[in-house]
Amino acid sequence: MRIGVMIDPEQSFDGLVAEVAALAAAGVEAAWSSQIFGYDALTALAAAAREVPGIGLGTAVVPTYPRHPVMLAGQALTAQAASGGRLTLGIGLSHQMVIETVFGQSFEHPVRHMREYLSILVPLLGGEAVTFTGETLRASTFGPLQVEAPAPPVLVAALGASMLGLAGRMASGTITWMTGPRTIEQHIVPTIREAAAAAGRPVPLVGVGLPVCVTTDVDAARAAAAETFAIYGHLPSYRAMLDREGASGPEGVAVVGSEAEVADQVRHLAAIGATEFCAAPFGTRAEREATVALLAGLVGA
Predict the structure, then answer these.
(1) What single DSSP character describes residue 272?
(2) Which residues contact 292 (CB under 8 A, 6 or more apart)?
(3) pTM of the predicted model, to two decimals?
(4) Collapsed DSSP state (helix, strand, coil) of residue 153
(5) pLDDT digits (tens, 9 = 90+) for 260-275
(6) What kind and span of H or E run contains 62?
């Protein structure tokens, strides 16, 4: 399992690049960026890639609705070229309240939207021309995109059975957030693997994103997780995964404890089928630093 860390999107651009450099220096294998209301993730990662060699880079995730798949393919291939092939492209639907309120777009038929989106995006990333007419998306390129870069793996943020099936059939895998180990083992991994196998595709990648804190005060850390990540206990898709896990809120799935306890929890994720760990360190500055150091120490272990 590759060990990665989410970078903090709420900082200066120089600070963002410096954080990627610090993660690379520490030995972390990948730096991941969300795409919410801050810097454009793919642009930021492309810039960081030119200054920081070696470390893997990923988006977790870029929302699909605001960007036509032809445009996103061009952006992703540009970042892939800038990084020398180090990009993993995580994409997702976002949430109804965001798409309808912020962008003023319809969130109807999200699975159909993603199926049509992948029908355009994946061939373009693979160097093909695309002519496609769907119910929500159309595209007709006059040839392949003129960008010399290998196709990045495409991970679809998928939690429900329909989206996991789609990810298994059409993408390289999935990237999850706020989804605990029991749900990963009993729902995410078997569902996406079954879909991929039925479609004759390789065993899919499974990314697991969770808050992480190495600490000597577990109760305080869980209280901090409950406050810091409170919104995710209310968004329907994440709430469904927390309910499946039997967790009252984000604090119930956060990876928290001593160095040994956190290491055991991370290793368990690898044992149940996770191929990417996308850690979101939280807590005090000292706890975040200890968390990154611990994660770096798990690389190759």
Answers:
(1) T
(2) 5, 23, 26, 28, 281
(3) 0.97
(4) coil
(5) 999 999 999 999 999 9
(6) strand 62-63
